[in-house]
Amino acid sequence: MAGVTNKPLAHVRQLPDGKWVEHYLDEHLLAVAELAANFASAFNSQDWARLSGLWHDLGKFREKFQQYIKTVSGYDAEAHIEGATGRVDHSTAGAIHAIEKLGPQGRILAYLIAGHHAGLPDWNSLESGQSSLLQRVEDGNKKGYLQEALRAAPATSILEQPRPASLPPQGSWALWIRMLFSCLTDADFLDTEAFMDGHKSGLRAGYPPLAELKAAFDRHMTDKATRASDTPINRLRAKVLRQCRDKATLPSGLFSLTVPTGGGKTLSSMAFALNHAVHHGKSRVIYVIPYTSILEQTAEIFRGIFGKDNVIEHHSNLDPNKEDSRSRLATENWDAPVVVTTNVQFFESLFASRTSRCRKLHNIINSVVVLDEAQLLPPEFLAPILHVIQDLSRNYKISFVLSTATQPAFSPRPKFAGLKDVRELMDDPEQLYADLKRVEAELPCDFNASRPLESIADELQQYESVLCIVNSRKDCRELHALMPKDTIHLSALMCGQHRSEVIANIKQRLKDGIPTRVISTQLVEAGVDMDFPVVYRALAGLDAVAQAAGRCNREGALPGMGRVVVFVPPKPAAPGLLRKAQQSGQEIMRLTPINSVTQTRDPLTRERFEAYFLHYYASLNSLDEEGIIGLLDMHNQTEARRAEFNFRTAAEKFRLIKEEGQTAVIVRYGESPKLIESLEASQNMEPHQRRAILRKLQRYTVNIREQECKKLMNNKDVQEVFPGIFVLTSDGLYRQDIGLVMDEPLSAASLTP
After folding, report:
1. DSSP 426-489
2. C-alpha span between 325 and 312 (Å, rounded)
3. pLDDT of residue 76
4. Can you give 293-325 as a three-state secondary structure string?
5. CATH 3.90.226.10 fits domain 437-619
6. What's the fold here for domain 210-431?
7. Which of 301, 661, 329 is nearest to 314 (CA)?
C-alpha cells in the first residue's frame, strides 16, 4: 500500500478524504511522559510519572502489535497477524522493563504500566481467575514480550533513564501509586484524544479562575442578604457566613463546620471553600454529598450562582438533559472548577482500580473538599476513609471541611486512629446551638413500649400540616394507607424523577400555606429543605432524629417552638447498621438528663451527639469490615516494603452500596414509557445510542430484591428486555401516590430509604 510507514505507530486515523494521519509511537511516549510529569509535580513525583509515560506503551514496538494496529484500522491492507485473534498485549513489556531497570522499585512503575488499560492489578491475586502483576510479568518474560519490543530499537533516550530521585510522600504508598496511575492514565487519554479528536480535546479548555467564581458568589450573597427579611434566623445565618469567610485564611488542612440544621451550612461552606481556595492558590472546589436527591438540589443552586458550564454534577443518576459534550468530558477527569458529586463516586474512586475511575484522582490534589452531612460517612468503611482523608490532607494539599449539624466523633482514641488536627470554623458551636434552637423534642416515657401505626395515624390527623418519618418502606406504605387520601407518600418505591416532583410539590404547598401531611422514609432528612410545624420521628439514631428536627420550624416563623415527637414503632429497625443506630440512639436519649429549669429533656445538643457516636461506633463489629487497610498495607506507612498491594481486591471490596441481592427495575412513569419503547426498538442501534437511552431511564428505576423481581417476572409483570435490564410491563403496578406496588410486605433486608 502506497504511503504506509514502517515507523512504529501509536495510533492512526483516517480523514474524510481517505488520507491517513499517523501518531508515531516515540512522539506519543514523549508527550505522555511530559504531561504525566506535569500532573505529578503537584505532589513532587514528576520523575516517577515521566518514566511511567515513557515506558507505558513499550509493548507497541512489538512487530505483532504494529501488524495488529495496521490490520484492524485498515491502514495497511497487506498487514496480517499470524495465528492471532483479538487484541495484542502492549502493556506488559514496559512493566518488565521497569523491573529489570529498577529492581524492586520498578514494581511501582510496573503497576502503572501493566494496568493503564486493564486497571491496577493485585501483586499476587488471592482469587483464582484473576491476572496478577506477578503472573503477568512471569508470563510476559516467558513469551519474550520485552525482547520482541526491543528488537524494534526504540530511541536510547526512551529506554535508558536515571533512577527516580524523589521519595514517596510520608503516607500510604498505595494511595501514592494510585495518584501516579491517575497522572499516567489521564495523560495517555488526553494525548490520544488530542490526536484522534481535536474538537473534543478543545472542549476541555476555557474554565474561569476561581477568583472569578468567588466574585460571582459574593455578588449573589450580597443580593441574597439585601432581599432577606431581618429575622433572628437570618441574622444567625449571616453570622455563620461571616465566620466561615474570616477563617478562610487559616493554613490548609482539616476543618469542621458544626452548624445546626437550617443554619445555612451549604452556602457558608462554599464561601469558606472559595475564599480558602483563592487565598491558597488551590485548583478547584469539590462538594461531596451522601444522597443524589440532595446533590441535585445543591448542584442546581451552584449552577444558578456560577453558571452551568462551571459546575460539574457527577453521579450515577444524572439527568442526561442537563449534560452536554463539555460536561460529559469533565466527569471523566474532574478538570472543572466546581465539582458536585456523591460519597459513592468520591470515595470509591479513591480506592478504585479501574482506569476510568482513577483517571480523575490527580485533579483532586490542591483542592478544597467539602464533605456535606459528614455524619453519614459509612461506618463499615470509616477506618480506611479517615486514613485516606488524613493522608490527602497531609501530602496532597487538600483541605477538607466536615460539614454537619451532628458532628461525628472522629477524634483519635485507643484503637481508633481518627482524624488529627481538625479545626472548627465556628467560634462557639455550643452557643450557636442554643441560639438556633427552634424545636422541643418529646421523648417516649417508656422506650420499651411500642406504638401501633393506627395510634400514630390518629394523632397525625389532628394536624393540618405534619411530617412523619419512619424507618422502612413497609411502614411508610402501611401508615400512609391509614391516613386521609390527600396525604403524601415519599419512599424509594418511587423512582427518582417521581420523588423529585413530589418533593417540589410539597415545598410549594408549604410555601403557599396549603395544609400538607407527609409520610416518608428517611430520604427527606438530609438536605431537603422542608419546613413543618410538627414532625413525628420513629425511634432511630440520634443523628436521624436531629435531621428530622431540621424539617421542623426551619425558619423559626412559629410563635413558639416547633414540636418534634419521637415514638417507638411497632417493629425495630432492620438488622444491621440501622438497628444498631436505633439502639444507640435509644440509649443516649434515655440517659438525657432533665433540665432543672424547663423540666424537659433535650437530646439535640452537641455533647449528646458526641456521646451518641462514641456509643454507636463502639457497638459495631468493625470500622473496616472488608479489611481494606490490610489489603493496601495502610498501617505500615513509613516502612520500606516490597510494594505488594492488592489493588483489584481492595477495589472490589470497597463498595459503599451493596448491590448484591438487589435488582433495578425500570418503571412506567412520566416519559419513561416512550423511552422504554425506544429501548425495546434499539436492537439495531449503535451501543452509544442505547447507552444514551439507558442513562435517561436511570431516573425511572426502583431497586427491589432479586426474589421480588423473579416473582414479578413469573407473573409476566417484569420483562428482561436485554441482559440485566428489567422493565415493568404492567401499568397498574406503578401508582402516582405510592410508586411501585408490591403484593407482599417487603422484608427487613430490603427496607432501605
Report:
1. SS-HHHHHHHT--EEEE--S-TT----HHHHHHHHTT-SSEEEE-SSHHHHHHHHHTS-TT-EE
2. 12
3. 74
4. HHHHHHHHHHHHHHCHHHEEEECCCCCHHHCCH
5. no
6. Rossmann fold (3.40.50)
7. 329
- Report pLDDT digits (tens) over 140-156: 999 999 999 998 877 77
Q: CA 90 to CA 88: how far, in whole Å?
A: 6
| Nearest in space to 410 (alpha carbons), one of 421, 395, 426, 399 | 421
Sorting pLDDT into bands at 50, 70 and 90, what band is 752? Answer: very low
pLDDT tops 70 at residue 742: yes
Sign, CA dihedral 131-132-134-140, equals: positive
- 8 Å CB contact between 373 and 543: no
Count of alpha carbons within 13 angstroms of residue 83, beta-carbon side: 0
Domain boundaries, the chain: 9-202, 210-431, 437-619, 662-750
| Architecture of the domain delimited by 9-202 | Orthogonal Bundle (1.10)
pLDDT of residue 206: 72
CA 536 to chain centre: 30
751 vs 495 pLDDT, higher one: 495
- d(CA 222, CA 210) in angstroms, rounded, equals 18
**Could you check whether 9-202 and 437-619 share the same CATH topology?**
no
**213 against 201, higher pLDDT:** 213
Query: How far is residue 439 from each of residues 236, 272, 510, 657, measured CA to CA in Å?
Result: 16, 28, 18, 33
Nearest to 382 by CA among 349, 423, 352, 347: 347
Q: Is the distance from CB of 475 to CB of 453 less than 8 angstroms?
A: yes
CA–CA dist 32, 55 (Å, integer): 10
Confidence of residue 700 (pLDDT cuts 50, 70, 90): very high
pLDDT tens-digit profile of 235-279? 999 999 999 999 999 999 999 999 998 899 999 999 999 999 999
